[in-house]
Amino acid sequence: MKIDLTQTHDVIAAYKSIDYSEIKKKYQDKGTKYCFAVLDGEIMAGYDIQLACFRHVQDLTRQNTEDFPYTYSVEHVRKILLFASVCPEMKTKKPVKLMPWQKFILASLIGWRNRNGDKRFTRAIVSVARHNGKTYLMAIITLYSYLIESLGESSQDFLISSINFKQTSKLMSYVKQMLIDLSQKAPFDALIEDMQINPKSLASQSDIVVSPKLFNRILAVTYESGQYDSFHFKTAIGDEFADPKVSDNSKISKITSGQIDVSNKQFIQIATAYPNPTVPFRKDEKRIVEVMEADYKREGENYLVLNWCQDSEEEMFKPQTWEKSNPLLGMNEKRAKMELDIESERDNDLLAGNSIEFLNKSMNVWTEQSKDSFLKLADVEKAIVPSFSFNDRQVYIGFDYSMFSDNTALAFVFPYRDNNGKPRWFIYQHSFIPWQKAGSIEAKEKQDGINYRDLAKKGFCTISNHPQGLINDEQVYQWLLNFVEQHRLKVVFFGYDAWGLTPTIKQLELNSGWPLQAIRQRTSELKDPTKFLQTIFVEGSVDRLDDRIMEKALLNAEIYEDKIGIQVDKAKATLKIDVVDALIDALFQAMYHFEDFADVNNPDKQVERMNEKQVLEWFNNPDSGLLGDDINDF
Fold first, then answer.
1. Looking at CB atoms within 10 Å, which of 351, 375, 387, 581 has the fewest?
2. Among candidates 363, 276, 351, 371, which has minimal Cα distance to 313?
3. Helix segments in 353-434, DSSP class H
4. Cis, peptide link before residue 529, omega less than 30° from 0
5. 615 versus 384: which is more confidently predicted?
6. Which of helix, strand or coil describes residue 457?
7. Distance of CA 207 to CAs 53, 76, 172, 274, 469, Å?
8. Yes or no: is domain 377-384+393-620 CATH 3.40.605.10?
9. 42 contacts: CB under 8 Å, gap ≥ 6
10. How many CB atoms lie within 10 A of CB 489?
11. Distance between CA 204 and CA 201 in Å, rounded?
12. DSSP β-bridge partners for residue 218
């Protein structure tokens, strides 16, 4: 039966369409039982784990066929789980009763075999949220390979590796301590003594564990050193190999190329998610998930991916789903405390404006930068300056009005010249924060991942004072007039969404005398200022303050393109790009400020934009400065 999940992504439906009753009856091992429990809905798991479980039961049906040279050895599963049952945990010095998902990991890594009797999965990725015991499992795998699988062999190399010395030493210390504790238990005491390993020597800070009799070695090598050459690792563990520092695939290739002639080899990478999805770890993870979806193609047979993660970022607000990324929550005696700890971590990170950290480490969700992202983080960060004086300057203002839960944003663009006379732009924003839809400002902060109350103290936003948390038009209007008056600004242009004929705009039309212009929000109108905003960030000719609201908006924005132009959009409704929309409205004219044809440099155009009172004042007093004696002098 041809199974193709590349379009439907419905693992459970595919599972239910096939009769596995004979397989379920035949295989009673812990690894297979876990798979059926997931697929039958008895254990909560995300899409990637459902897919891995489906692959497992599908592969059980393929055994003993010509085009599938692998078998599942229940005997090997029994041995690794028996070994794990006596391995002491570092803190308590006692063995930990493994949960079904942990047994599934061990069973998958050790149970599947090729026709030579070696391990089928020569490469593997195991990914799960932090504090779920990855290190303990990898220590078990390392010592099982070192003590049990290598019996009768000599001069075998085993690798413990992480990004730097500190992280590598942590995993190595775990392995050493487990080996010390095993040396005090029968029958491993006799085995370790026969290998001539002195338990006292393991207490040192040495980066090697060696059997003087067999010269089998466990080596601790950091990724930063990259000294993997000349070694032929039987089992290699790469801890935190999803770190963005692991961007050079050639170092990983040194590990795997050295394993070519090694029997029963395996390279296992373990990590949680990171913000950078371009690392080899994530690319392999995605590739094998796609391979598993195309079940009928039978590709990637030697690569195992077990990824416990949330299915979406929105699930960070759904504790009932957190078992997908934190399978330890399936342990009833730990659930309440662990869930409370994760909630506390989430709330603290959200209030600190650090939702990405929580998503990566606690939800195991990759916060991917879209290929359509408007700006890169580096370009946004390099524009930060410590201060800027607004006083007595010309300014272009953009206005993006909120209809429902979005923020209302005012953007200010100040053109000026640097010390070398080169044109530059300083951008500033002030947002008005509605909380009606969220229910409270606290909930709004958690939803957006921004500490608005703290930013309000810094002058970057105003919390709505409307009794129901809606945008208060009078509050917006008064704040704007006060800001312009306080800094004695000369408003050259005020751009706003053509659909946003709000009370604020009406009041400005009647009372301000500013040159207002409605801007149609379509690609043909917005393409030039949108491209200009992107260009000044890339070229480094724009400055801004360290403003979290502006930064998030700039990073949330994506490019939308059609046949006639471009404009910014957002990937999800919960992402805020109001500030970017307002900036683009302001740049509709500000981008031309230093050009001879700009309205600000054309006296006739300035007269056209004056109201009757201003024209009369200028006519009676042409030296009033309304047109500016030197409008480019800042």
1. 387
2. 363
3. 355-361, 377-382
4. no
5. 384
6. helix
7. 37, 30, 8, 27, 60
8. no
9. none
10. 18
11. 6
12. 158, 209
Question: What 3-state class would DSSP assign to 564?
Answer: coil
Question: How far apart are the C-alpha atoms of 350 and 338, rounded to whole Å?
Answer: 18
Listing DSSP states for 154-207 in one string gives -S-EEEEE-SSHHHHHHHHHHHHHHHHHHTTSTTHHHHHHHTT--GGGGGS--S
Cβ neighbors of 56 (< 8 A, separation 6 or more) are: 31, 32, 35, 108
Q: Using CA atoms, how far apart are residues 380 and 540, in angstroms rounded to an integer?
A: 9
Which CATH superfamily hosts domain 66-309? P-loop containing nucleotide triphosphate hydrolases (3.40.50.300)
pLDDT digits (tens, 9 = 90+) for 92-147: 888 999 999 999 999 999 999 999 999 999 999 999 999 998 889 999 999 999 99
Amino acid at 474: E
Burial of 79 by CB count in 10 Å (0-12 exposed, 13-18 middle, 19+ buried)? middle
Say how far apart CA 572 and CA 82 lie, in whole Å: 48
Q: What is the pTM of this model?
A: 0.64
- The ranges assigned to domains in the chain are 66-309, 315-361, 377-384+393-620
Distance separating alpha carbons of residues 514 and 512, to the nearest angstrom: 5
| 575 DSSP 8-state letter | S
**Model confidence pLDDT, tens digit, residues 334-354:** 899 999 999 999 999 888 878
Which of 251, 282, 255 has its CA nearest to residue 266?
A: 255
Q: Among 101, 117, 111, which Cα is nearest to 49's?
A: 101
Residues facing 280 on adjacent strands: none
